[in-house]
Every structure is written in C-alpha cells, then in structure tokens.
Amino acid sequence: MFDERIVASFDDKETPFYYYDLKLLNQTLKECRSAAEGHKFHIHFALKANFNQKVLAAVKANGFGADCVSGGEVKKAVEVGFDKKQIVFAGVGKSDAEINFALDNDIFAFNVESVQELEVIDQLATAKNKKASVAIRINPNVDAHTHHYITTGLDENKFGINSWDLPLVYDTLKSCRNLEFLGIHFHVGSQILDLNVFKSLCIKVNEMQQWFEERGMPVKVLNVGGGLGVDYQNPDENAIPDFKSYFQIFADFLNIKPHQEVHFELGRALVAQCSSLISKVLYIKNGIKKNFVIIDAGMTELMRPALYQAYHKIENVSRMVEGKGFKAEGELNLIPHTSYLSYDVVGPICESSDCFGKGVEMPETKRGDLIALRTAGAYGEVMASAYNLRPAIKHVYSEE
Ligand SMILES: Cc1ncc(COP(=O)(O)O)c(C=O)c1O
Ligand SMILES: N[C@@H](CCCC[NH3+])C(=O)O
C-alpha cells in the first residue's frame, strides 16, 4: 500500500494524521454492493465506525443507507444527504430530544431496545401526530466469539430485548396507536471472523420471525446487524473482506419470505482497511530490558490498543521499499532480517496503556521516521479524545 511516492508525499505533512486510500474505499464499497445486490439485500453503513466527511460522501455515492446510534449521527446523516428513508436509528439510550429529532426527519425506522422505549416513542409520536416505524431489537443470546467488550448479543449484554419479554412487546405494540411494527433487528457483536456465528444468528432470526408472524404480525424487515470482521494481521493481502461468502450465509440460512427485505448494518468491514494512522518517531529510548519507539500519535488518536488490547500492524514506512522489504538509512540494498530490532511502540500520553505494540519487529528505527498503524479506518478517529489537550485529528487523502 505504501509505495515510495505515497511516503514521499507525507514529507511536508504535519503528523499525526489519518491517511485515507479513497481508491480502496471505493473498491470495497463497490464489491460489497455488488455482492449484496445479487440477493437484493439492503445495507446501511454504521456511522459509528467512521463519520469522516469524505468517507460518508463515498458511502452515500455508492448507494448505502445510514445506521445511526445517536441524534448526532442522525443529524450528520441528514446533513450529508442520505435518503431519509434509508436512515435507521438504534441505541439503548435514546433521549427524548434525539427521538424527536428523528421523528421530525421522518427516518425509516427506530431499532427499539426496550419496552419502555417503545412507550416513549409512541408518546412522542402521538404529540406530533405522526406514526413511528419500529423494529424490535432482540437479544438472540448468540456468542459472537469475539473480544468480550465488543460482544453484544448475549443475555448478559445491555443490548436488545430478551426473548422472554416478547409477549410484553406484543401487548405494547398492540396498544400503541402511533407505532408501526416494521420488523426485527439483531446485532451479535463486532470483528466476527467465524461465519458460523452468522449461521447461528440466522437460526434465531427464523425462530423469532415465526413467533411474530404466528401472532398475525407480518415481519417486513429482517435486520441482521453488522459485525463482519477484517484481517488486521494482513491488511495488504486481504484488503477487501469476502463479502460474497458473508452474504451467501444469510441467503442460505435465513428463511426469507416474498414480503420481506433483509437489512445489514456493516461498519468495520467497509472502512477499516482504507485508512492508516501516520505518525512520526519522536525519540528512541533504549532501556535495560526494552527499546522504546516513542511516536507522536497516542491513544488519543487511536484508542483500540489501549481499550481492547487490539492489534494493529505497525510498519516503519520510511524504511520500506515496495516489493523489496526494508532498507537501512542511506542504503538501497536489502538489509538482512537479523538487523531487525524489537521495539515497544508507545505514544506520548501519560498512561502506561498508551502502547500500540510490544516487541514489534522493525528495521533499526530513527528519530523522524514515519510509522504507519494499519487498518485504522474503523473505530479509529471516531474514538479520538482531547485528553492531555491534544489537538484535533488531521487527515490526508489519496488523490482518488
Ligand atoms: C447495532 C449495531 N449495528 C451495527 C454495528 C456495526 O458493527 P460492525 O462495525 O462490526 O460491522 C454495531 C457495532 O458493533 C452495532 O452495535
Ligand atoms: N469500538 C469497537 C467496536 C464497537 C462496535 C460498536 N458496537 C472496536 O474498536 O472494535
């Protein structure tokens, strides 16, 4: 991904910044869309993964809808120009102001996460003399086999309505005159690489839709959420996820009826690989037990390693020649692997967890080298913070 021309173009840029490969982003979006179109599946992009303006413009241009988790995201989606009939609003804690904003904008649907929320949406819709379309988020108790902080579909998680509360949901839907029941919604977790998880999800979705339809409530939308993972270890070899196999699971195992639409809410799979956090080496500190590379990006710019011990591939792009490996300073020839050193790559923030990788093998690294933290396009800049009064994040975009 980082040929010499790209690295040279970074020379005059102030670090740290997120570098976006817009060509890769567009390729990824197109592949996803064509894989989904074959099955007539609808995809809403989960804005929580990335709400960078250029990213959203590309997502919208490629025909995706918007999956929002706050009033702020609904507002953003409206401002960017997503079709309001392609905006959904999920989240366990929607405030009255957020619900009102979404009602005023006539969005496609609320994914509702509790019985009390159903009642509140009905009251607020009644006050506006409107009907709110709702999908019921059901907690399917399916183990996503992913990091426990990003598992969302187990009984112990706060998300969704548990199946034993469905009779109460049914009664509430029947008594609330300003709600229109649209369908059911699920999301079991994120960074899921084992496609069997989605098979188990399909089985639960089939059970749940039958429950509603047996009670005379047609389920028009089956929303199966997002969660497809990406290859953090091999970002160049597997730059675009296998969308075909992913969608095929749902085509094979979901019991889709003619009156139904299947909706997805993908985030990470669409945007993770198109961006890297580029940072400059400030200092090299050789300790007794460890060598530290101290870079000018910290957990404030990319929080995932500190928060989830998440892995991001780390490369010294100043010493990389495309197709040839690494070069030593001033040399054009390859340097042997034995001259790779082991470093802990850390940021400047006053927290011990401000560490991007331990024992990272890199060619001998010097002050001023550029370091790329790969696969940072999802849950990267959106989770940035101003802790330590850090400046706002900067961006650089590929030409395309
Ligand atoms: C309800 C919901 N939908 C969609 C997503 C997007 O997930 P992912 O980025 O893993 O595709 C999430 C985040 O996990 C979510 O909580
Ligand atoms: N922020 C998480 C994903 C959360 C998904 C949202 N429910 C991550 O970086 O992996």
TrEMBL record:
Residues 29-272 form the Orn/DAP/Arg decarboxylase 2 N-terminal domain. It is an enzyme of class 4 (lyase). Residues 18-377 form the Orn/DAP/Arg decarboxylase 2 C-terminal domain. The keyword Ribosomal protein does not apply. Keywords: Amino-acid biosynthesis, Decarboxylase, Lyase, Lysine biosynthesis, Pyridoxal phosphate. Its EC number is 4.1.1.20. Substrate binds at R268, R304, Y308, E351, Y379. It catalyses: meso-2,6-diaminopimelate + H(+) = L-lysine + CO2. It comes from the Bacteria. SUPFAM superfamilies: Alanine racemase C-terminal domain-like, PLP-binding barrel. Gene3D superfamilies: Alanine racemase (3.20.20.10), Lyase, Ornithine Decarboxylase, Chain A, domain 1 (2.40.37.10). One of its GO terms (molecular function) is diaminopimelate decarboxylase activity. PROSITE patterns: ODR_DC_2_1, ODR_DC_2_2. The keyword Secreted does not apply. Its cofactor is pyridoxal 5'-phosphate. It holds the Pfam family Orn_DAP_Arg_deC. Signal peptide: none annotated. Pathway: Amino-acid biosynthesis; L-lysine biosynthesis via DAP pathway; L-lysine from DL-2,6-diaminopimelate: step 1/1. Belongs to the Orn/Lys/Arg decarboxylase class-II family. LysA subfamily. NCBIfam families: lysA. PANTHER family: DIAMINOPIMELATE DECARBOXYLASE (PTHR43727), GROUP IV DECARBOXYLASE (PTHR43727:SF2). Homodimer. This is Diaminopimelate decarboxylase. It comes from Pedobacter segetis. The lineage of its organism: Bacteria, Pseudomonadati, Bacteroidota, Sphingobacteriia, Sphingobacteriales. The gene is lysA.
